[in-house]
Design goal:
947 residues; mainly alpha; Nucleotidyltransferase substrate binding subunit/domain fold; Four Helix Bundle (Hemerythrin (Met), subunit A); 5 domains; five-stranded mixed sheet; 42 helices; [glutamate-ammonia-ligase] adenylyltransferase activity; GlnE_rpt_dom; ligase activity; PII_UdlTrfase/GS_AdlTrfase; EC 2.7.7.42
């Protein structure tokens, strides 16, 4: 702490001298204690910071003795409000509140508690006063009017919701408490003087407010503010849950979303209160990115700014520029925008919410640290202003003496030094707050395009489009006039039309600047037709120029993503999700994201599939964006798409088993597994690829095993139904699309075989009847979902099958024969374009080369049985010398080139056929040369020797 000026020393000495004199008078028997250096030093520091604390210690000497004993480590004893001493309740509550408040001052001033502890202590104190008072009043009301019961006779209690800082657990030292009273069900009390629920709880709530708020000779306990209830002072005092739900659905306003964001049941029926808040969550948090919340924030900020100007509140550290409220609004606005999609952002407390925003990459770490530091600074100063005389003030003091006391109590040399530090913090807050509200104002769409759009459909000159860069200006003009005439545009509200009028010129300018303006425009208009029904998406594009620019960029270069955005506007959120530009989730995170979908809702299959589809769409969109932006290789993207599919299958299997078990029970001790073949098994899935699945089961007792439900069925039918449900659920169409098409033709005996195979029959089939091409398919097969021990058993069957001693020449003949048949049927190459998958030297040639290697040589190289994806298989073969280092590197490069080109074609809805450029030619040559070197000549009638 800085050295004190002479003026301050005189002031401090005068204040502390008066305080010590008052205490000696109040505690004559403890003069020796007060004379001790330890006690005197503490009391002087407390006296300099708080007249209220000294007043309390004079009136309650026992509080002083306790504080000197343990420095306030333990809270003060709570009062007992007995019915026999009703008249004493106000004094008891006020005495408790002042004693506990003084303990908080003591610990704050002496540096024993930080700001968070003081706020938590103030919150706990208010809660306990509310709970003690309500408990006592409920007993009194029950004696007079009985207990309210619903139609079934269940007792009903008042629910007291704390809003604002009380709800957030961050109540400042001398704050009022924002309360809303409610009750779960209508009913009537069962006493002699019966009351209906509304009047009963209204009277109870009014008595509660009076008991706490009324000014008596002992002061007050807590100031109570009931104006945040529906309709404010004009509304009823206590509301049923049903009435409040109706109100919020029909008339809830933006400011109420902010208010109820922090709501928490603090007294009465806490469990019922939490149930109500769960039902209110859709009102507070939208399912999509909700940039419409900024309109409410702008309106509230404008109203506060007007109040600040009118009442000259520039020195108000709560409501003034750069004050506490700006931090609160900034954090709450970001929570409302993103919290519908990210449950981790729904915390009621400010600082944990701020950290969650940083962790979710919706705020930079620097901004988070800046706001955290400013918040601590302002809240500490706010508390000291209020601790001085227990006043509900947020204004900087006008008195020179008070200013000096506050400054020195916080460790500053004088008021000017504190003011410099305060102004610096407020400037930082204002900068961050203005940045949140600024995006719309930063857009500067060309005036000509703005005038053109607003003149449609009757006016407007297409020459403006030509000047902007549309080569096909006439076609663009016709498309825009049709759009402007559409019922969707004509039916917009004034607010939504205003957003569209701001968005369209910017979209037109961005489309005109793209590589294919007309293509971009057509795709954008298709998207806008769907978005018009959801004003929140217009709000997103209106508020966030970055998202708007990203949208044009994406639709210009990817037909697939443009189609998905148009069909599922929810994906627009992904354009602005900070995670899109960051590292993508790994296998475990993708599995966890799918597993967490609609947890505990398996009785509602439709809801599970809808939610799972939305998660799959969002994650696959994020993977596509990473590929399109060049932030991730095609190999990594294909692998992540496969892991995402694994997670989806895991979740769907859980749903399918739940449904079958609900009807038939379960098969005791039985096991089920889903095996992924093809690109899923090889972890090289494409966008929109189907899933090659094989289903296995194993049950004690084999075919004689039965399920244990009321409608028992044999194990084979039970698992067949599970498998059928998995296929059906994966292919079911929902509002968010279908999950995946499924191909089950790779099961034993193909289309003629059973959908589900027992482990024993599968083992026998692979050993006795499977063709070479089926063993080739087994090279990429892997366990995807189900019982892990059965997955291990599958791995054993696979390893035994693939590592069998084989004649390399016979394998070579079979592999080449199959490849030639496939190429004759499937290769779509011609003189102008090369089929990336089926063409000569394409991806399938590389797959067949590696499958041949495993079948012919894994008996000598068992490590080759572990990898499933192409790069890993190449590496394994290179380690053991079957491929030389240069050859292996060329094959890995060729695979990456062809896979990347193939995924790029899929993203733009083009066939996977491309003109042969240098990279493709090099890739084809590497694959063909390696195949030839190992005796696999797929392109001529002759068959080479073994490798």
């Amino acid at each position: 702490m800085s050295s004190k000026s002479p003026a301050h020393s005189d002031l401090s000495h005068s204040i502390t001298a008066r305080a010590m004199a008052r205490l000696r008078t109040a505690l004559p028997a403890h003069a020796d204690v007060l004379a001790e250096d330890h006690a005197r030093e503490r009391l002087q520091r407390v006296a300099a910071a708080s007249d209220f604390a000294i007043d309390t210690l004079v009136r309650q000497p026992d509080v002083l003795l306790r504080l000197l004993g343990d420095d306030g480590a333990q809270p003060m004893a709570e009062p007992s409000l007995s019915p026999e001493h009703r008249s004493e309740w106000p004094a008891l509550l006020r005495g408790y509140r002042t004693a506990e408040s003084t303990r908080l001052i003591w610990r704050d001033v002496l540096g024993l508690d930080d700001v968070d502890a003081t706020l938590a202590g103030s919150t706990h104190l208010a809660e306990r006063c509310l709970q003690l008072a309500l408990d006592a009043l409920e007993i009194e009301f029950a004696q007079r009017h009985g207990v309210v019961r619903d139609r079934e006779g269940n007792p009903q209690r008042l629910v007291v919701f704390g809003l604002g800082k009380l709800g957030g657990g961050e109540l400042n030292f001398s704050s009022d408490v924002d309360l809303v009273y409610a009750y779960e069900h209508d009913g009537e009390s069962d006493g002699a003087r019966a009351l209906d629920a509304e009047h009963y709880f209204a009277r109870l709530g009014q008595q509660l407010a009076k008991l706490l708020d009324e000014l008596t000779v002992d002061g007050f306990c807590h100031r109570v503010d009931l104006r945040l209830r529906p309709y404010g002072n004009a509304g009823r005092v206590a509301w049923s849950f049903n009435a409040m739900e109706q109100y919020f659905q029909r008339e809830g306003r933006d400011w109420e979303r902010y208010a109820w964001q922090k709501a928490r049941p603090v007294a009465g029926d806490l469990d019922a209160g939490e149930r109500f808040l769960e039902s209110l969550r859709p009102f507070i948090y939208r399912r999509y990115l909700d940039f419409g919340a900024l309109d409410g924030l702008r309106a509230m900020k404008a109203a506060i700014s007007a109040e600040v100007a009118r009442k000259e509140l520039a020195d108000d550290i709560k409501r003034g520029p750069g004050g506490i409220r700006e931090i609160e609004f900034l954090v709450q606005a970001l929570q409302l925008i993103y919290g519908g999609r990210e449950p981790g952002l729904r915390d009621r407390r400010l600082l944990p919410s701020l950290q969650a925003l940083v962790d979710a990459r919706q705020m930079t770490p620097d901004a988070g640290a800046t706001l955290t530091g400013a918040y601590w600074f302002l809240r500490r100063l706010e508390n000291r202003l209020q601790m001085l005389r227990d006043a509900q003030t947020h204004a900087l003091p006008e008195s020179t003496d008070d200013r000096q006391r506050i400054a020195h109590g916080l460790g500053y040399e004088d008021w000017d030094a504190l003011r410099v530090a305060l102004d610096a913090q407020r400037a930082l807050v204002t900068s961050e707050f203005e940045a949140l509200l600024a995006p719309r104002r930063k857009r500067n769409a060309p005036d000509a395009l703005t005038s053109y759009w607003r003149a449609l459909p009757e006016g407007g000159d297409s020459a403006v489009l030509a000047d902007a860069g549309f080569v096909e200006a006439g076609n663009a003009d016709a498309a825009l006039r049709d759009f402007a005439r559409s019922p969707g545009v004509r039916g917009l509200s004034d607010a939504a039309r205003g957003r569209l009028d701001r968005v369209m010129p910017a979209l037109l300018q961005a489309a005109a600047a793209s590589s294919e303006p007309m293509l971009a425009l057509r795709r954008l208009l298709a998207l806008l037709h769907n978005v018009l029904r959801r004003s929140a998406y217009l709000a997103l594009l209106d508020e966030q120029p970055v998202a708007l620019a990203r949208l044009v960029e994406v639709v210009s270069h990817s037909a697939l993503l443009a189609e998905r955005l148009a069909a599922y506007p929810l994906l627009l959120d992904e354009l602005l999700d900070a995670r899109v530009a960051g590292p993508l989730p790994g296998r475990d995170e993708l599995h966890a994201a799918c597993a967490a979908v609609a947890e505990g809702q398996d009785d509602d299959a439709e809801a599970v599939l809808q939610a799972l589809n939305e998660v799959r769409q969002a994650l696959s969109f994020r993977i596509a964006m990473a590929l399109r932006d060049g932030r991730q290789s095609a190999t990594e993207c294909a692998q992540q798409l496969a892991w995402l599919a694994d997670g989806v299958v895991l979740r769907v299997l859980r749903l399918a088993e739940h449904e079958v078990a609900g009807a038939h029970g379960r098969v005791p001790g039985a096991r089920f597994a889903v095996i992924g073949y093809g690109s899923l098994g090889g972890e090289e899935l494409g966008f929109g690829s189907d899933l090659d699945l094989v289903f296995l089961y194993d049950a004690p007792g084999g075919e004689h095993a039965h399920s244990d439900g009321a409608r028992t069925i044999e194990a084979t039918r039970w698992f067949a139904r599970v498998a059928q449900k998995v296929v059906a659920l994966l292919g079911a169409v929902t509002g968010a699309g279908r999950l995946y098409d499924v191909d089950v033709r790779l099961r034993p005996d193909g289309a003629k075989g059973l959908l589900v195979s027992s482990l024993a029959s599968y083992r026998d089939y692979q050993r006795e009847r499977a063709w070479t091409w089926e063993h080739q398919a087994l090279v990429r097969a892997r366990f995807v979902a189900g019982d892990e021990s059965l997955g291990d058993d599958f791995e054993s069957v696979r390893a035994q099958t693939l590592s069998r001693e084989r004649d390399p020449q016979a394998v070579c003949t079979d592999v080449v024969s199959m490849r030639r048949r496939m190429r004759a049927e499937l290769d779509r190459s011609d003189a102008a374009a090369f089929d990336l998958k089926q063409g000569e030297g394409g991806l399938v040639d590389l797959e067949f080369l590696l499958q041949y290697a495993v079948l012919a040589h894994s008996a000598q190289h068992v490590s080759w049985l572990v990898p499933r994806n192409t790069p890993a298989l190449v590496e394994a073969a290179a380690v053991d010398g079957w491929l030389d280092a240069g050859e292996a590197a060329a094959l890995v490069d060729a695979h990456a080139v062809l896979l990347e080109r193939g995924l790029a074609c899929t993203l733009d809805r083009r066939p996977r056929r491309l003109p042969i450029d240098e990279a493709i030619a090099r890739s084809r040559a590497a694959i063909t040369a390696s195949a030839h070197r190992h005796g696999l000549v797929f392109d001529t009638p002759s068959v080479g020797t073994t490798g």
